[in-house]
């Protein structure tokens, strides 16, 4: 049965981070907002996956389980077929989610007080995670050139050379600015890291979600030398909208690091064999490619709808053309509001929960991140609210 991406489903009946009134109230001080913030989709995942989960539940026995070769092969085949990247089963490790994998790797590869480079504005749990471990985030800020974010390689080299950096955490594709890093950009990052003995954690959770005319390149696929210093974090969470099922993988081809990773997981008995996670992980990669392709078509249409709406109705705002992710980075700096004022305006006047740019670092000031993985009617309603609040604001000026 085909899924209708236009269906509006009430998610607030479950304790969802995105839609529950409790969480909206906690983060925005208003429980009655339309929600386009947390990075998950408002779409049901594939029926094939739902059926497999229901059948697993009906079996009724949820004792200890393990990962079969079929399980490992599902992800190996997905990456080979979709992204022409081959990795071996012995380089494949698992974690409950991407953030726990990143956290373990920070712990293993750095010491208290070490520096870790991030490319701000970036997914804010990176810097939070770094600080939880008493390491110091070093910002290699992205630069906005003619409407497109670029890596400041001179600054990166300077920081690689002169800081106590042992690690860089990449977001590829980049959340929130939507860049899908090109092979030559990743190669240059890899060369700098090799030169200054810096390891790379590449968070590639958004890797499948790439718009027409762009191509995702896993950094570890570029060369053996780069693969040897890279830990690539992968997950079906964003691709199939199953983040609540806790599934992630880490590709580690450096044997020493892999051994440390396994030892850490064994020491703390980190369980990656939840019965439902196992089903979701395998079934999504093995069976749900068609659902995902349909999602991508709907997403492209949502992006087009958003761009047309802005062009026609909201000339004061600028959309940063995304290459990947369903998170759209929007420039509201022409409204000339300070962060607090913009936040208040969005919450009180627009009445939509977006992620505020400054949450991603100072470089995000004046921007919002809009999650367009939702039925078009919800996106349209959010845009109508934005237009009406901006029109009213302009009248009052
Ligand atoms: C770049 C990035 N990494 C990691 C995550 C979270 O992944 P997980 O839920 O597997 O920890 C997100 C979620 O928004 C993300 O955007």
UniProtKB/TrEMBL annotation:
InterPro entries named in the record: Aminotransferase_I/II_large, C-S_lyase_PatB-like, Class-II_PLP-Dep_Aminotrans, PyrdxlP-dep_Trfase, PyrdxlP-dep_Trfase_major, PyrdxlP-dep_Trfase_small
Keyword Transferase set for record: yes
UniProt-listed Gene3D superfamilies: Aspartate Aminotransferase, domain 1, Type I PLP-dependent aspartate aminotransferase-like (Major domain)
Entry cofactors: pyridoxal 5'-phosphate
EC number: 4.4.1.13
Single GO MF annotation: pyridoxal phosphate binding
Keywords from the UniProt entry: Aminotransferase, Lyase, Pyridoxal phosphate, Transferase
Pfam family, one: Aminotran_1_2
Superkingdom assignment: Bacteria
Domain (Aminotransferase class I/classII large): residue spans on this chain: 69-385
Family: Belongs to the class-II pyridoxal-phosphate-dependent aminotransferase family. MalY/PatB cystathionine beta-lyase subfamily.
Protein name per its UniProtKB record: cysteine-S-conjugate beta-lyase
Organism for this UniProt entry: Helicovermis profundi
